[in-house]
Amino acid sequence: MLSQLLQFLFSGLTVGATYALAALGFAIIYNASGVINFAQGEFIMLGGMAAVALAALGLPLPVAIVLAVAVTGLAGLLIEKFAIEPAGRADVVPLIIITIGASLVVRGLVQVTLGKGTHSLPAFSGEQPLAIAGATLLPQSLWVVGVAAVVVAALAWFFGRTARGKAMLATSHNRLAAELVGISTRSVLLLSFVLSGALGAVGGILVAPLTYTSYDMGIMLGLKGFVAATLGGLGSGLGAVVGGLLLGVLEAMTAGYISSAYKDAMPFVLILLVLFFMPRGLFGAKTIDRV
Amino acid sequence: MKSLEVKSLTKVFGGLHAVQDVSFAVRQGKVHSVIGPNGAGKTTLINLITGIYTPTSGQVLFGSQDITGQAPQKLPALGMARTFQNLQVCMNMSALDNVMVGAHLRQNSSLLAGLLSLPRLRKDDRACRDEALKAMALVGVASSADAQASQLPYGALKRLEIARALMTRPSLMLMDEPAAGLNPTETAEVGRLIRQLADDGLTVVLVEHDMPLVMGVSDTITVLDHGSKLAEGTPAEVRANPQVIAAYLGAEAETEQQLEAA
Amino acid sequence: MNKLPSSTRALMLLALVLLCLPLVLPNSFYYDVAIRVAFNAVIAIGLNLLIGYTGQISLGHAGFFGLGAYASAILSSRYGWPPALALVAAAAGVATLALLVARPVLRLKGHYLAMATLGLGIIIMIMLTNESALTGGPDGMAVPPFSVFGRELSGEKHWYAVGAVALWLMAWTALNLINAPGGRALQAIHGSEIAALAVGVDVAAMKVRVFVLSAAVASVMGSLSAHYVGFVTPGVAGFLHSIELVTMVVLGGMASVFGSIIGTVVLTLLPQLLSAFEGWETLAFGAVLMLCMILLPKGVVPTLRARLNRSAP
Q1: What's the confidence (pLDDT) of residue A288?
Q2: pTM higher than 0.80 for the full model?
Q3: Which residue of A has its CA nearest to C298?
Q4: A210, B128, C130, C240: which could form a disulfide with A261 (CB 3.0–4.6 Å)?
């Protein structure tokens, strides 16, 4: 009983760490610009697929990983430059469509260059499972959660301690005020897309050894990342992480105890419940309309 | 006969007493202004009366009916209309359509009737159109009937809101800073309009900063400061009230000059 | 003599086009495209009432389409219901579902509303995929032909007539609504909910009503599509289809009935044109979406109308 629960907990936290990174990506872009980047899921996919392709070219795994993250960060930059910036102050719906268009472009490019097949990466430190209280834990899972934790800590340091990071936070609180004190909101926006791209890529690369990666895995991952971000409270970094982990665990529990066929429905049922009963999520900020 | 009566109205936001124990009454067909320095709670008061906020305590009586805390969309049916400090014009519609929407409660707004374009509906709509054009002429924007609302200048939009409010055929109109952003000529026109509406029997509650307008158009005035009632009376009484002068002197010396000049 | 209002003239033009089109369609393939365009355009107009006129969002409308399609398929093939009855029952069922979820969902705004409707659509799709005993699962199920009063609809000419009539009726009723008090109330909700409340509009109720209307329209067209194609798969209720529907509305022009028709034409023809780029469709589609939204943020028809107004004396 306990071992089964632990098993689900392990797999839930593992995939939850990926959701957390995706949710953070959403949060960072949302904070910088108010845009919901529907291409976030494609960053995850691109990271994994790029790493696979680079490794297949013969590059050592660590190099392939670093390059893949860089490529995805670049993709984020390009999307900001060619999709978001030209749109200016567009309304919600056109912006959503633009980011969806961008996600299709990324997916289409991967499809054309790398094909429709499924691939995976070799596990970082071997496949020998560890036994803990009757449950098995793959070493890759430790990598996922561990690296994710390091990334989150690095982000917390960046936003809390560096001038750049604080400038980004300032922009998210009040764009006009930030511009007035000389912060280049344009470069903040650019940086937010690059960061989110890199974050997504890291998540995608981490889980690639566990779950197969293919050109169309981005859609669901992106949507679930968005659910996690909303669950935690759109715009809250802590909320993104908690939301992601919580979502992963709840999903694993649903698959284990209720029905694995409906495991994919659970995040969306959850988001409906969250939006109906606590739309600001766990850690979201209150907003007031002035009349 | 009292058209509107506010009794001990209080609104507390967290620790902030935005409106504290405010009471006043307005007689039918009179113009009653609510003035006070910025942050005095004037807009909060209007929002309390029109159901946007629910009072923490106190009552709002309209005619003989207790309308405390009633939802905003219930009030036009009772005869209460309002205009907004932050312009609430539908920029996605034409000026005329904006005004015609004011007749919503008197028209058949069911989707089915609209989809089928029933003949009775079309006839009513033509009558509504004529009425809307008359309302626009009354407030002075008749020439802009077919224009998109987004093409109209600010002053015209302010008056458009008044025309829309008039289409609800109200017996009481609450106007939140109708002269905000208007030049002296436009402000004087608004003043004339308000007097004309009052003379035709409409009760007007006016929240305003513009002292010449307030002093020229009001029958009675309530002065708010930091959420509480500071003074009340005719324009002459309020103008001479030392507490009122002190409240304004502390905030804006210009306004004091206006008080003396008006 | 007074000029006829522009909407009447446009409707007459639409009727003319619809009547004359069969004369120039060379073969079945083109008929098929025309029928698909007509069906999609009906849904797009209904969706535009919700998105463009009332200012709401729905990223899950394909869910209603799919429910209509599958309800018709299941009722007529597994339970032997007459297809016309199945269609009406499906629409009633979908309308009821929409009614149930509308009130809590439409209290939300912006991205939250988008997310909620998205979630709804995906839940519907997953259910359709999983309940394979009923729906045939991921492989889908066959749908019997549509017949009413014993006469069967078969062949492109019958279906073209259905599509053309449906499209003209939808355009006509939508234009009626926009110029009616109800339509004005909807647009006022989009412009300023507070102002709408101040003139007595029951904002929540009207949002629900237009949501249910557009959902029912999607369901009816889903049912018809299912009978026309003869087969239905869970993908029709999926996220991508929902996005296509929204794009037809936004691309053509929000708050423009003819914009929805134009948008549908473009978006239905586009994959046909892009099929020449074997394997590049997704990429090209995404690029076109981005370009259109960036260059024509108000949509094709409103942008053209504005250009024409500026150049006219």
Answers
A1: 53
A2: yes
A3: A94
A4: C130
